[in-house]
Amino acid sequence: MHRRPEGPVQFMTRYVIRRLLQAIPTLLGVSVISFVLVYNSPGDPILIRTFDPNITQETREILRRQLGLDQHWTLQYIGWLTGVTLRSGDVVEEFTRDDFHCSYAAGLNTTFCNSGGGILRGNLGTSIATNQAVWERLTERMWATFQLGVSALLFSLLVGVPLGVLSAVRQASLFDNSVRVLAVVGNALPSFWFGLMLIYYFGVIRGWLPTGGIRTVSLTYEFDLVDRIRHLILPTVVLAVGGIAVISRFMRTETLEVIRTDYIRMARAKGVAATRIWFVHALGNALIPLMTILGPAILGVLSGAVIVETIFSWPGMGRMTFSAAVQRDYPTVLGAVMFFSLLTILGNLLSDVLYGVVDPRVRL
């Protein structure tokens, strides 16, 4: 009995499901490593939260116990993961609250408390600093990070792709060598230093662009597109520098391979215009492998956003994560790390799927 050949839709569906299932242990590994690193980081969130000489040490210990920070890290991890915390003895009355239901198991001499949360249920926890749900804090700042990230990715493509193609076409020329040197410098350039230099020159000395923020403070809260673009320019350039360096080098390598193929030689022999050869025939095929770096590009934007948003006071998820780390707001830091990890995995999956779609010869 012959098995019917699998169609492209069925194959792609099975591939996506398999990759999503493989992502589960990856996310669990990320959660363990992140939690251990955060748990062993220096600083005390209780001391930061209760920075008041009138608050006694006994009050701090009570607060620490209520938040579960007095337990071993394994018990804290289980509570964060599942929303269920374990306490030795009968402490039902002490820990039962409106959002915290506890029950005592006499045989085990253990109190089980269910907060209704846990990341396995899609609940990233509650911020220690603001007592606000971590997911709400992320969603409030998600749009700002999305604007900056998309702007940086588009700018990287619009600049990096032409630079890479022209560098390959003019191989071993002064332009090619200059682009290669600038790519190395751009890849190694510290974003915090570059951002501060741009702020100092364009914002302080020249006064051409805002030094930070997402909009100009005014009595009205009406959206101003021109004002938003002016605030986007500097952080977008800083965030895109690394992407431009990677994409230009990648496109140079791919274009060099394409222009040596037979069909490009045939186009030259037929007298096709050089610009049409480079930017239509060669570029179209050289862009296909570019799909493979979509996932790393998303990771680069997310990791770079932490520094760039902090420097430019951009109210996004990166700046919130940095502030939470300074305040030792562990639930917010862990929630942001898990959210960024999920976006990275989905970005890698998307790049693989798009690569298979644009190039049917590739079997995923």
From TrEMBL:
Pfam families, per this entry? BPD_transp_1, BPD_transp_1_N
Keyword Membrane attached: yes
Q: Name one GO cellular component term.
A: plasma membrane
Q: Which InterPro entries match?
A: BPD_transp_1_N, MetI-like, MetI-like_sf
Q: Where is the ABC transmembrane type-1 domain?
A: 142-351
Q: Where in the cell is it found?
A: Cell membrane
Topology in the lipid bilayer is annotated as: Multi-pass membrane protein
Protein name, as recorded: ABC transporter permease
